[in-house]
Here is the input.
Amino acid sequence: MIFMTGSLSSVFSKSEETEKTKFLILLEKTKDGIKLSGVQGCAFKELSFSLKDYNSQAIDQFGMSSLKRDKPEKDNNLANFLFTIKKTKEGFSLEGIEGSTWKNLSFNCSGTCRQFIDQNGMTDGK
Here is the structure.
């Protein structure tokens, strides 16, 4: 009986952990580079920056970051994630490092381009 209670508690803990890491970001290609809009789970509302082809930039729940960042303090209103974004000739390539179920995402982007991403990958933003 105790084993079953422990297992049940573990299941609830994992689903609660997943709930806390939910994020939603709108990624847009701009004339000068990249614009990210934090829709859910982010401290930032908008980030805009230029990025040369094949250079990457780390992004976390607070905005632009680095791979050697200090672990941020837990905030129940924010997701806990870290990924890198790289501009390629065809579009964008992202590498999920922490807080996402995906390891790599890439998509083509010609002209005006908008793509929502969340902890599970590319989404329609709903």
Residues 2-123 form one domain.
